[in-house]
User: What shape does this take?
Amino acid sequence: MEHGDDGRPVERRKHARIQKTLPVHIRSQNSDERHAAEIVNIGGGGVLLRTDATVDTNDQLTIELDLVGESKPISVFGTVVRNDARGLGVSFVRISEITSDLIAYLIRKWEREGAHPA
Assistant: This one.
């Protein structure tokens, strides 16, 4: 991890993240099997997930987020960019403008409800 002159880690993300715990399901591009996972934090460019599923760096995932009031889950595609003790760092790819706008809306909503920056 890169550190600044003050010794603190340098933030390289393009999108701010918030701490928000949410249950989701993930599915690897190579399998139809769904696995339970949990979002730890989320931003416009990706998520940090925890799961017991075996997932490798560079794996392509579909993340399915069930929202109250929606008839079907929101599906977001991503690439695992990090897999360590903190969890799976997943960067969103091939995200539609509608899905991107919805995620941004949800993040603003959760911030108003008291979610903290990650």
